[in-house]
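User: Predict the structure for this protein chain, please.
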Amino acid sequence: MFRDHTVGVIIPALNEEDAIPEVVRAIDRSVADWVVVVDNGSTDETAKSAETAGAAVLVESRRGYGSACLRALNDGPAADIYVFLDGDGSDDPEELERILDPLQDDDMDIVIGSRTRGVSEPGALTFLQRCGNALTCSLVRLFWGVTYTDLGPFRAVKNRCLSVLNMSDPDFGWTIEMQVKAARLGLRVVEIPVRYRNRRAGKSKVSGTIMGSFQAGWRILAYVFRAKLSELFGI
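Assistant: Here is the predicted structure, written as structure tokens:
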């Protein structure tokens, strides 16, 4: 539907029964050909709420953001362009077309919605998230000479690039894996400022606790260092 491209939207979700209907319904179906919600082991009615709102639902019992994304890519419908966004309502689905615009006419390969360049509501990005983003992006710039400002979940990538990226991280490293591999492979990546809303029902699965933030940050940084060591020493 997006001119000559098929667009699929993938939404990993964990215990988002209250937020997910609004997220699904806000996606412009004149732009997106299909929407898949991946229930990542919810204990509430997330899957039922998503299906009632009009999304197809897949289930991934292994907890992990990357695991949910991989399930959709492996078992969901095919598309020329895949869009990823969170199911808690913090990403604004109404910005879908802005995320997709740079992929028109073969200009770019990946578009990342930058929360730090855009407008974040008070409390939407925690202090630990901002620090972790800044440190990780600085390391990527130091190691590979590519400048990023964010590791935000709202992003779009061409299908042909995914086959080259060979994504595999099952957890919090999914977004940085994509950006590091894109930097190493010389893919064309652009950041678009996006709004980030403080609309989570309850605590965020990652940033709502100090331990969750620490674990996510540690895994992200560990991925960056492993990638550089592998490049230098083949380990």
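Confidence is low (pLDDT under 50) at residues 201-205.
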